[in-house]
Amino acid sequence: MRLGVLSDIHANLPALEAALEALRAEGVDEVLVLGDLVGYGPHPRQVIHRIWKEGLPAIAGAWDLRVAYPFPEPLPEGVGKATLEWTRAQLGEKELAYLRSLRLSHRKSYGGRRLVAFHGKPGDPEGRMDLLGPTRDLAFFLERYGAEALLLGGSHLPLARRVGKGLVADPGSVGLSLTGEHGADAMVLDTETLEARFLKVAYDLGPLLFDLRAWGLPPILEKVYRTGRFPQQG
Fold it and tell me: In sequence order, which ranges of 55-182 are alpha helices (DSSP H)?
């Protein structure tokens, strides 16, 4: 089976549409979304409705939870905090209820191979796992969940690593990629061989930047969309 994997859409509708079209061209059998549907970008409502329309299984990311629930700990000053309340104000009760309905994990067997997926770190959507860290740390979670594939969203960087006979992978970010180049990230996973292949999909920045400016969202985001990095990354 060929599984398309997307993550970190971040309210960027043109990027989502381009990524879905690319996965259709790849002939994937199913598409899984690893969270952060909203946040930063100008299209939170449209992205949620597109995921609804496509009927895609999705899990909750840190941003989805922050928008859907009043967290006691505020975000630090910056782009995220500047867009949080705006994002929440764009959504009606139906969209907020949808975000609240998202589970924190996806667990499913594909052809006898068990796959588990989380946003961030297992049990902590706002956490991060170092996919280049010690093998034993990654193997621990594969063994803990009895899985052969562990998929994680949240880093905004596509990476796959074989761990013994298993696989740990992050598909990167659809809407706010930090790979150093413009485009939406997507991943195609062969669930039989556990081979992961990454796609970088170009999309038209015009409508995105128009809406970004029209809504008065932080202009620094335009630089990220164009270059694939935040300015402080150098």
Answer: 62-68, 79-90, 93-101, 135-144
Query: Cα–Cα distance between 50 and 30 in angstroms, integer?
Result: 15
β-pairing, 184-190 with 195-201?
antiparallel
SS3 48: helix
> Dmax over Cα atoms in the chain, in whole Å?
50
Give the residue-averaged pLDDT of 84-89.
94
Q: How far apart are the C-alpha atoms of 109 and 1, rounded to whole Å?
A: 11
| Alpha-carbon distance values, 107 to 114, 145, 147 (Å) | 7, 9, 9
In the chain, how many domains are there? 1
> What CATH code is carried by the domain that includes residue 104?
3.60.21.10
From 26, 32, 16, 8, select the one nearest 115 (Cα to Cα): 32
Residue 206 structural domain: 2-233
How far CA 156 is from CA of 7, 49, 165, in Å, comes to 8, 22, 25
* pTM exceeding 0.90: yes
